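Deviation from plan, reported transparently: adenosine-5'-diphosphate complex.
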Amino acid sequence: MEEIALQFALDGSPISCRIFGEGHVNRTYRIVTDHGKHYILQHVSGTAFHDVPGLMENVARVTEVLARNSADPRESLRLISTYDGVNWVRDREGEYWRVYEFVEDSLCLQAAESPADFYESAVAFGRFQHMLRDFPIDTLHETIPNFHNTPDRFRIFHETLAADPCGRAADVKREIDFFLAREEESGALQAMRESGELPLRVTHNDTKLNNVLLDAATRKALCVIDLDTVMPGLVAYDFGDAIRFGASTGAEDEKDLSKIEMDLSLFATFADGFIPACGGLTPREIETLPLGAKLMTLECGLRFLTDYLDGDHYFGIARPEHNLDRARTQIKLVEDMEAKWDAMQAVIQNYMPG
Ligand code: ADP
Ligand code: GN1
Ligand code: MG
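Because the crystal trials were delayed, the predicted structure below was used instead.
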């Protein structure tokens, strides 16, 4: 680890390097130097990302625009270069590493402690969208092709189900049937993307609450992090994924499903922070936000179940049925959104122009 850290132009020499944070895909460490400086050292998952130099180019270009638009240096991630003037290193095993400035005096929440926290995360993601509105979308690398292409996620699911490499399918028939019953309707956003009915924007695509930092002193929106999946996308992805995670009344891996609901009041809180901060969304985009919530939740549940069937190669797990538990909370959330569908539409109608 030291050998890797020493290649980056840090202020001081590293004196400690400890595992940090709760991501499911990358491995994150916090470095402290003898000058009292803190950094984030990250191993970028080669399982998830097949073109890390392209991904790092996206991150560098996007953070440059965000930094230019921000008053406080903590409002944008800042990459640290190596002594060779690049922003990543490759270790002997061929794995990629990068370093960011540690965003000081910030909070990263796994669950909102109040609706105000969730509102602030919505403002952060909305502003992010707004600041990147003129970014040349075509120049971005697609870091994970078809990331939110739900029909393509179903294609992979069917392949995994047919192979059933761990013999787990028979025991999760109810969960499998839940997704299959919704396969046809799940292609709606992708169809609107392909027909051009919805515009492509620079989207974050992984808008979990724990991918935003709040200012620890003011609890206001500070910095959007985890930029690996910034790609061309639909605004409904960013709205939807944030609802999936942050408007749930329980943790993503909660075993007691009676604790899991989609809180309609938190849904409204997020809409209220996000839609005005984005600015300039088309009526059609606004109208599709509830669909984004449902389909991002369905898709994420399908991905968890697929990974469970496949033997847990993609998402980090801490217990044997972790991915199955995660899939089940997403199923519960989708069911609850179906029950609250008309109310979700009514909330969003308030933001329709005219
Ligand atoms: P993953 O892709 O695995 O989710 P993240 O980039 O989200 O990785 O980082 C994991 C965690 O590390 C975050 O949830 C946050 O707590 C922390 N973190 C990441 N970058 C920074 C930073 N620049 N400053 C402070 N904390 C950070
Ligand atoms: C992963 O990396 P992290 O933990 O922020 C995943 C998201 C999922 C999320 C589910 C690159 O996000 O797509 O929605 O887990 N990221 C990637 O918690 O696949
Ligand atoms: Mg993250």
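The CA atoms of residues 28 and 42 lie 5 Å apart. We consider this an acceptable substitute for the interim report.
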